[in-house]
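hey can u run this one w/ magnesium ion bound, need the structure tokens asap thx
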Amino acid sequence: MIAAVGKPSAGKSSLLNAVTDAKAKVGAYPFTTIEPNRGMAWIKVDALLELDPRLRSVPVSVLDVAGLVPGAAEGAGLGNKFLDDLRTAQVLVHVVDASGTTDEKGQAARGYDPVGDVEWLFDEIISWVAGNLAAKWPATARRHARTGARMADTLQAQLSGYGTKPALTAELVDTLGLRDSEDLEAWDDERIRDLAAAFVAARFPTILALNKIDHPDADVNIMGIVSKYGDDRVVLCSALAELALRKMAKAKYIEYVPGTDEVLTAADAPDAGLKPLPSKHASTLESIQDLVLFRHGSTGVHEVIAAAVAELGLFPVFPVASAQSCRGFDLARSAGAAGSSGGASSTDGPGLFSDVFMVKPGTTVRTFAINFLRSLYGDDGPGFGHAERPDGTPLSGGHVLTPDDTVLRIVTG
Ligand SMILES: Nc1nc2c(ncn2[C@@H]2O[C@H](COP(=O)(O)OP(=O)(O)OP(=O)(O)O)[C@@H](O)[C@H]2O)c(=O)[nH]1
Ligand SMILES: [Mg+2]
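ok here u go:
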């Protein structure tokens, strides 16, 4: 799950609506969102296209929560309790208002420099975790001393509520050089906060979505943020532009290919069955093209989701049940590799791969197969026997999946 965080009015709900079919309420005032909104985004995966042209995207769920303001940990704004919804997020998208038209509380402003938003938002996320840790610290510390538990186990008990794998906690303990004999009762708030900061950095990789790039002031603010934080995890976007294009496409005024700068009107494509563009929409379209599409190549919203998924290094794996469909896939792929086209229209072929799973690096065949079988049959279904590649090569349960293992035959046993 990808979670959108940020100050009020940054455009979190707009981004959610732009990349999913959600219809979250959007408003030019702070705290439009109180209860979280959810939606499903479909991300394009090149490896899928190679497999079968009909399979080109996989679903990723997106969560949009209330806005955070500085001091949320002390109760400012809506506080930070709602961040508990982020516990299962795999990656965060920090939506930043790059236009400088809202201040840190999400109130209308002019010429506000959003560079500081990146830092204080991160601090608030850390405060959320630090606060949770601190609340239980005395009891945790006493128990640790009394039971002589391993440091990794003590911390894991505190961090498992964030969907934290023991391996991540063990790494954290290593990185911070914590010993099992650590006197946790002597830790002050600052020490706990340092732990929370290291944990948040490891557990919640974050993409910066610099939104509202359709605004003329965005350029200078983007430069400020990129020069401070680099451009590795920065994606530029305009949720508003995407929403406008989708709306015009839905009303049959334009043909629009999301993720590109391709827009056709009735004037461009007389045979496409498009309605003539009313002048109001024509000027909107023109400014979206000038300010967003032609300058940036797309509205950027799909790139935000793609960057978030890429941050996790997820890759697609298709589990199939029968040797026949597994081989069918192999044939289809070699036909595709030989340059045959038009596979999309075939009705036979490898159309049996209805389930595609995005897999985390480090996942073993066994873990994958067990989850897959559970998704098919529930808890009482058949167990995992073995797995093989389309060419019949057997894979052990302990084999760690790689992006080359795109198709996997799972045999129950
Ligand atoms: N110019 C411009 N305005 C945008 C863009 N995205 C969102 N907005 C506007 O920004 C305002 C706030 O948008 P929301 O999506 O409600 O923001 P939010 O972050 O969900 O706000 P809260 O729910 O209050 O936390 C609305 O007036 C949107 O139309 C954008 O890309 N460009
Ligand atoms: Mg909102």
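Confidence is low (pLDDT under 50) at residues 330-353. anyway lmk if its weird
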